[in-house]
Amino acid sequence: MKLEMLDAGVFIAYVLGLLVLALWVSREDKQGGKNTEDYFLASKALPWWAIGASLIASNISAEQIIGMSGSGYALGLAIASYEWMAAITLILVGKYMLPIFLKNGIYTMPQYLEQRFDNRVKTTMALFWLAVYIFVNLTAVLWLGGLAIETVAGVDWIYGMIFLAVFSIAYSLYGGLKAVAYTDILQVVLLVFGGLFLSYLALDAVSGGEGVLAGFGVLTEKVPSHFDMILSSDNEHYMSLPGISVLIGGMWVMNFSYWGFNQYIIQRALAAKDVKEAQKGIAFAAYLKLLMPIIVVLPGIAAVILYPDLTTPDQAYPSMMALMPVGIKGLVFAALVAAIVSSLASMTNSISTIFTMDIYAKMKPAKSQHHYVQVGRVAALASLAIALVVAEPLLGKFDQAFQYIQEFTGFFTPGIVVIFVMGMFWSKASSSGALAAAIGSAVFSLILKFTWPELPFMDRVGLVFLMCLALCVLVSLFTDSKASNSSVRLKEINFATDKGFNVATVGVVIILIALYAAWW
Q1: Distance between alpha carbon 27 and the CA centroid of its chain, in Å?
Q2: Given CB 3.0 to 4.6 Å as the disulfide criterion, which of 42, 272, 280, 497 pairs with 177?
Q3: Is 312 helix (H, G, I), strand (E, B) or coil?
C-alpha cells in the first residue's frame, strides 16, 4: 500500500503539529531551567486526563496494533483478554500500589527497591531494566515500527527506523516527561478515533454497506469460533491462550509486572500532584483499555471475511487500511506512527530517568540539578542510538519480534512481581529473599522451558511465580528481614479511595462480567 499525495500531506501536518505542541508545552516551564523533578516527573503536576492518555499511548505501539490485529485474524476475540484483564489490573494498581509509591516520593522503581531493601537490589534491578529497555523493548519497537512503515507506506524499513528515532527525540528530548505526556493526548485522540473509524468501515464493508450492527452480526454468524473468549485445550491456539489461565493464572503476573512495576508505564502516575489525581488517571486508562479490542482486534476479525487469503496474519491491519478514503488514510497512518513514537519517547525518558537517578547520581552525588537533566538528555539520545544499531542484528532473525519480547521478559517477570509484592505487603521480606526470587525466576523458567516444553507460556509464568514466592519466603525467614528505615511502613499508607474511583471500579467489573458472559 502506498500513500497518496493528500495522505502524505495530512501526515506531514500531523508531524509538524506535534512538534509545535511539544515545543509550546516545553516553553511553559519556569525560568532558570528545569530541575530533575521538572524533567523526569513533569514538576509533579500532571492532571488525571494527561496521566490516563499517556499511560495508553505509552502502551500501544506497532506490535500492539499490527500484532493484535493479526491475532484477531488468526485466533479471534480471545486475544482481547490481554486488554480487558489489563483494565482490572490498572484498577488494582491504582488502589493498592500507587499509594505506596507516591507516599515514598520516588522517581523510579529501583529507587523504591533501595528504600525497601538495599542498594544491592536497587542496582541489580536498575541495570537489568536498563538492559531490557534498550536491547529488548526499544529495539523491538524501532524494528517493528520500521517494518510497519515499510508495509503501509512503502518506505524502506531502515529509513523508517531512523525517522521514528529522530521524530521521537525531536519532540521529547528538551521537554522531558511533560512534553511526552501532553503530546500523548493528541496521540491517543488520533489512535482512538482513527481506530474506531477503521472498525466502522470494516463492519460496514462486511455487511455490504448495511451498517455496523449488521456487519457485526455477519461476523458472529460466519466466524463464530473467532468469538470464543476462553479457548478449549483442543484449540490450535491453546498454547498462546491456555483457557481459564487468562482469568486466574499467569496473565495476572504478566499484567502486574507491566502495569504496576514497569518504569515507562508507572512514571506517568508518579508525576501526579497527589494520589487522588493519579487514581483518576488510572481509572481513565482502564476504560480506554476496555475500548482497545474494538480498535485493534475487531478489524483483524473482519479481515477474515474481507481478505481470507492473506499470507500472514500480520498483514490484516495494513490490508484493512486500504478501506480508508484518501486523506483519512493519512490520518490513520499518522495514528500508527503516533503509537510508535509515543512508546519510543516514553521508553527513552524512563531509561534516562533510571540511568540518571539510580546510577549516575549515586556515582556523582554533588552535581547540580541542571547537570543531571543534561545527563538525562544524553542518556536518552545514547539509548536510541544503541537501539538503532543493534535492532536488525538482534531481531532480523525472529519471525515474530513480539514473541521475542514476551519470551525474554517472561523469564524475569515472575521474580519481579514477587520482589515488589513481598516488599510492599510482607514486612519480613529480606534483601536476600528478593535477590533469590530474581535469580530463581530466570533459573526456574529455563528449567521448565526445556524440561516441560508442552507447558503453555502463560502457565509457566504462573508456576514460576509460585516457585519464586516460596523461595523468597524461605530465604527471608532465614536472613535479616528488617525493612530499610527510609521505606514508608504499610500501616502509614491510606488505601481509602474516593467515590468516583469506587464507581469507576464497579463499572469496569460490570463491563468485564458482561463481556465474558456474552462470549465465554
Answers
A1: 28
A2: 42
A3: coil
Confidence of residue 493 (pLDDT cuts 50, 70, 90): confident
Instruction: Give the mean model confidence (pLDDT) for residues 488-497.
Output: 82
d(CA 423, CA 308): 50
What's the Cα-to-Cα distance from 343 to each of 336, 399, 415, 466, rounded to whole Å?
11, 22, 25, 31
Q: Which residues of 377-398 are buried (b: 16+ CB within 10 A; e: fewer)?
A: bebbeebbeebbebbbebbeee
CB-based burial label for 414 (10 Å; 0-12, 13-18, 19+): buried
Which helix (H) or strand (E) covers residue 252, if one does? helix 250-260
Please check whether residue 164 is in contact with residue 145, taking contact to mean a CB–CB distance below 8 angstroms: yes
Q: What is the pLDDT of residues 44-53, one digit of tens each?
A: 999 999 999 9
Rounded alpha-carbon distances, angstroms, from residue 86 to 231, 431, 500, 509: 19, 29, 20, 12
pLDDT of the residue at 91: 97
Q: Who's near 87: CB < 8 A, 6+ residues apart?
A: 286, 287, 289, 290, 508, 511, 512
Question: What is the phi-psi region of residue 489: left when phi exceeds 0, alpha when psi lies from -120 to 50, beta otherwise?
Answer: beta
Residue from 309, 91, 56, 16 nearest 195 by CA: 56
Model confidence at 253: pLDDT above 60: yes
CB-based burial label for 162 (10 Å; 0-12, 13-18, 19+):
middle
Distances (CA, A) of 347 to 106, 354, 377, 487: 18, 11, 13, 26
Kindly report the pTM of this predicted structure. Answer: 0.92
- Burial class of 232 by CB neighbour count within 10 A (0 to 12, 13 to 18, 19+): exposed
Cα distances from 55 to residues 9, 61, 271, in angstroms, run: 29, 12, 12
CA distance 332 to 328: 6
Tell me the CB-side half-sphere exposure of residue 390, using CA atoms within 13 A: 17
46: three-class secondary structure by DSSP: strand
Per-residue pLDDT at 136? 85
Q: What is the pLDDT of residues 118-145, one digit of tens each?
A: 999 999 999 999 999 998 889 888 888 8
